[in-house]
Description:
By secondary structure, this protein is mainly alpha-helical. The chain has helices at residues 2-17, 27-33, 36-42, 44-51, 66-78, 83-114, 122-150, 160-176, 181-195, 199-223, 230-252.
Amino acid sequence: VAVIAFAATAGACGFGLSELVNPVVSYDGFAIWTLHPVWYQAGHTASVAALRNAALVFSHPQYPPLIGGTVALDWTISGLSSVRSGVVMIALLNALAILAASTGIMDLARRVARRVPASSSDKNQSGSGVVLGIGAVCSVLLVLTSFRAAGTAAVDGHADLLWASAAVGAITYGLVLPWTRAHLGAAMLLACIAGTTKSEGTLTAAWIVALIGTRGVLVARSHNPRRGYGRPLAFAVGSLIVIGLWPLVIHLLRALPNVEASGTRDST
């Protein structure tokens, strides 16, 4: 059932990506997410110049480099340095983030199904199947709902769905599922993805990492008050370093402040 659920969820992601048949590019996709990789491909000097160029503030040069770096890497490998290929890559990243978040739901359902009392009776066996089936349905619904909520923004070059979905996955693995090394690693990885995608994701991911680290310390304390703090603290500190590295770098490179965001921003 878990394998079928994963296949159905992946199929739902493919259905969401089917909108790529319409070559639509948003303003952000054109002016931000496929412009940054142009600087990165040009090298360090060009990237630093963009960070300090007041004429490029509209493009948010200070945004973290995950999207720009991934698109630049795609262009370098494929040789297709086009806005269209960049938008397709961003859409694939969005879908993968949603898929990662949905696997947490299925993992939770699988663990709940194990708690159904072991018995040879058909009733208990069907109970486990029902739990897994509910998990599969919820997993698919999460994907469809995510694409529906994002609308065209899922496939037109926007990156909001990427950091938001990664944050949801980090919460699921780090704060909902049982405390294991695999879940901790998945949570911190997804939090780092959210934190290096966009400035909004950076702050959100930092709070999530702090909560996961706190949970880890509490879990370790409940099992062994004298030991066990090392792993959650090491993961949390390591993740915060990854998330905070880019803000530190752009500060050291004397990047210009980001776009003015105070006030109502109506008609501006």
